[in-house]
Structure formats: C-alpha cells, structure tokens
Fold this protein.
Amino acid sequence: MSENKKNQFITKDIFYSSIKGSFTKLSPKYMIKNPVMFVVEVGFVLCTILVFFPHLFHDKGNNLSLYNAIVAFILFVTILFANFAESVAEGRGKAQADTLKKTKKDTKARLILDDGSEKEISSSELKKGDIVLVKAGELIPGDGEIIDGIASVDESAITGESAPVTKEAGGDFASVTGGTTVVSDWIKIEISTDPGHSFLDKMISMVEGASRKKTPNEIALNTLLVSLTIIFLIVIVTLYPIATYLKVQISISTLVALTVCLIPTTIGALLSAIGIAGMDRVTRFNVIALSGKAVEACGDVDTMILDKTGTITFGNRLASDFINVDGVNQKDLVKYACIASLKDTTPEGKSTVELAEKMGVTLNIDDYKNATFIEFTASSKMSGIDLEDGTKIRKGSGEAIIN
C-alpha cells in the first residue's frame, strides 16, 4: 500500500464497506445501544407506517401520505448518515489492522501428544493447555509459556525491539507471543489462550473498533444525551393531548420531526464515530491505544520518555562496517567474518555476508562442504566454522568469544 493511499481519509474499499455497514447497523439490536438514534429509528418506522395509513391516528389534512413520506425519508437519511460515519471510522481502523493481521498468520503447529509423538495441525485449532514444539525459523503459533528449551526470539513485529530476545523455561522471560519468530534453537510452549483471545486478536479487535472501552467523558456525555432525550420525549408526549384540548391539530409526523429536532441527534449520531476515529488517528502513527481514555490523555502529553531504544528502532540489526584492530588486515577480517557467516541464518549473519559481497569478497559455500559449521544458538551466543586444515573461526558476542 502506498503512503499516499494509506493516508487517504476514505478509500474505495472503505466507502463500499461503509455503505453496506450503514444498512447492516439498522438492526434494532444494534441501534438500541445508542438510545438517541434508536428514538430516531422508532420515529422513522412510525412515519413509514403513516405513509400507508395516514389517518391511523385520526390526523386530518390533504397530502398526509406525501408529508409523512418526506419526514420518513429525512429520518432515514439521518440514521444512515450516523451509521455511515461510524462505519467509515471502523473501516479505517480495519485498514490499520491489516498489518497486524499479516503478522497473525494461520501457520502450522507441531502439537506434542500425550505419548510424546508430534502431530501437525493448524494454529487456529490450538487450545489452552496444548503443548507445541517450535524450531528455528518458525513462527510461534500462539501465546504461551516456555516449558522446555532456550531460544532467541524475534519480537520486532510486536514490540519493535530489533534485537532478538533470549527466551527460556522458568524465570521472567518464559512467556512468548503468537506471531513472533524463533531465530535459533527450539522451544516447547504450553499455549495459554484459547482461539480468538490471544494478544494479537485483542489488538486487532481494538484497532478495528470492535472492542473499545468508552472514556469517562464519553460515558458522562452519553448519560446526558439520554437524560435530555427522555425529557424531550415527555414534553412531546404531553404536547399532543394539550394541543387536542386546545383544538389545535398536530400530525404525528410533525411531533416525530419535532422530537428529532429537540433531542441531541447530531451528537448522538457522531459520538461513537468520534471515539473510534480518535483511536484510528493515533494508530496512523503506529501507536495502539488500548482505550479512548488513552487517546484523550495523549492530548496532554508534551514529552515522552522511552525506557529502551528498541521501542523506536525499526527492522533488524544489520552489519554496516568491518573495523579491524591493530595487527589485523581488514581484508582478512572481512573474509573470515564472511566464512563464519555462510550458514548463519540470523539477520546479523545474513547481513555480514551481504556487506562482504559489497566490499568485493565473494565466497562459494561449496568450497567449504567438508568444513564443520557451528550454528548460532541462544546459549552459546556465537557461530563459526571449523576448516579442514584445523583452523577454527568464531563470530559472536565479545563475552562469548573471550570465554
């Protein structure tokens, strides 16, 4: 998706889905959640009935059917506008959720059975308590706790942390999130959530606006709108017998139209759309708000302090240069670093080979088919190769190499 299209207020797909949503939301089960608009819908239904039975309430006058039809049409458009505004806000949220949905792939999972054997199933079939085996290069199929093994896990898709995190059974780093990738080694995970209740599922639901906590201001405003609506309904209901007593003829459609004008229809129509749109606005800056209250709080934030650099980095760590120490030829450094990275599948290993090739060092892996490659592991924190002539080359963290 291009940046220009991403920043559009409404795309063609959102427009068509919003039109569909405008009619879907006409269901009384949905409309009753917004009492103000529910009153408008009841008025629309009443006016529609009066189009075919204009004298149902003994109204007098000519062209009552036409008058009732005009009022019904205006009320119908008002309801559709409210539903369309909310659908557009939800549609933009769903578009923002596409990135999270790409992370949450329906992958294959190795389910460990009671007899110790393995069975390959879809990750969507996993349930709480299942034990799965995940190896290097595979996506973790669901949220859970590590019960065996140690591995490096790439959590950049969730946390933004570019460096893989070492995860192992027991301790503070035993929990893992579905959609993250095991970079090295293997781990056994006990799934801790049922389908549809994982961390990513909750995030997607909140971004789409399907699950959203109302802010205190929104709750207070909604209470005020309901109170005003009840007051004006009482006024309108008493107005009819008073007019009858005074021998003043007021049609039911006129009373319905007056009700809609008096009650806070516009605010009630846009209230939920405003809440969803606020969460969508911060999502465009790659910030996921857990509630509308958090969005309101953002307006008072002047300075943000982050606790780690991984929060503001993007992508994986990549090799950018080879710096040789005294007494070491840089060409030899590049060559041996490249040899040690030929079978290193971590982002650092791959980028080392790519950087070496840019600097003119190109190696053929077939020339080292008789050599012994040492794969990177989370426990050793280094990789390397043992050549046929006995030469040993190691690449990794400074602490691991010294030890």
